[in-house]
Amino acid sequence: MKRTLYTEDHEAFRAVVRTFLEKEVLPHYEQWEKDGIVSREAWLAAGRQGLLGIAVEEEYGGGGNPDFRYASVLAEEFTRAAAPGLAIGLHNDIIGPYLTKLATDEQRRRWLPGFCSGEIVTAIAMTEPGAGSDLQGIRTTAEDHGDHWVLNGSKTFISNGILADLVIVVAKTTPDGGAHGLSLLVVERGTEGFERGRNLDKIGQKAQDTAELFFKDVRVPKENLLGELNGAFVHLMTNLAQERLAIAVAGIAGAEHLLELTTRYVKEREAFGRPLARLQHVRFEIAEMATECAVTRAFVDRCIAEHADPAGLGLDPVNASMAKWWATELQKRVADRCLQLHGGYGYMSEFPVARAFTDGRIQTIYGGTTEIMKEIIGRSLLG
């Protein structure tokens, strides 16, 4: 079915993104994978091209366009290019809303211009060694010392952890407040006591720097409190729907791209004197994946349209959880089946299907695991 989600302006933007990928990302990506990190120049190039801060007001150097469909185009094209290392989606779609919606005027002037230019790379530090999706398990503390907070604790699995110049840290500011005693504190590069651990060795997304972060008696100015004191839980829940939708967009785009690659491969690859595509089992596999992708695409596109509707309130958490769960689990299934259809070649790193298999495996985990998504949906239905 023909997609009706995007306008000519969105497709023109898609062409810009593809050109950027071809010029600034793909020629360097193999080296970034070896280095375990992308170059700073790539972030600056993204800023010059207008790919950062699309939803940020123009007065701060942003695009001034909150239409989420532009973010969707970015997610689709970066997924198709197999280039998750340059985490523009994390920067724009996950961290951006915290700064645009919660920052004071002074904080906006201080942080947003660099956010849009690529001079300030961002990260959000929520996960701890003993606390993933359970916010009540967070142990990082921030004690009130009058004109500043004293931050102590550690975080792990932090995307952009090595490159980040500005880290939004979830910390306990009221010891007995549980999930409702947490606040968001912004820690900037170079702050005394703020240390980065090793660049973690992952099975996929090798170019995306993921790190441990350590905070020992870090003095955080009161001016770096983001949002309301003890309001982190509400702030986090408010922004999670967009984060999960962005992951779902990448999920279905990844599944569709793998299906395209594999359909082409089975037409060309021969076994027993004829193309694999002539085997009934292979045709059935392709038919099943194509149908699952088509059905998923219809739902995800509807979610994008709902979230992008300027007259609406954005996508609700339940539908966002449905989209995230279903699209990422589909991506995982399709990656496995497509690798199988490639046979031994699918296990070779130089084949796109092999990298997609490992790069995409995290999709069902970060942003809330599939199990957490099901719990959210189940509670909405059953109480």
Provide a short characterization of the protein structure.
By secondary structure, this protein is α+β, with helices and mostly antiparallel strands.
* Beta strands, count: 10
- Unreliable residue runs: none
- Profile the largest sheet: 4 strands, mixed
Indicate the percent of residues in helices.
40-55%
Mean pLDDT, nearest integer?
96
**Biggest sheet, strands in spatial order?**
1-4-5-8
Radius of gyration, whole Å: 21 Å
Q: By helix and strand content, what is the structural category? A: alpha+beta
User: How much beta, percentage-wise?
Assistant: 15-25%
Q: How would you sum up this structure, described in words?
A:
The structure is a single chain. This protein has 383 residues and is an alpha+beta fold. The chain contains ten helices and ten strands. The strands form three sheets. The chain has a four-stranded mixed beta sheet, with helices on one face. A four-stranded antiparallel beta sheet has the order 2-3-7-6, with no helix packed on it. A hairpin with a 2-residue loop joins strand 9 and strand 10. Helix 6 (232-268) packs antiparallel against helix 7. The radius of gyration is 21 Å and the shape is globular. It starts with 7 loop residues before the first helix and ends with a helix.
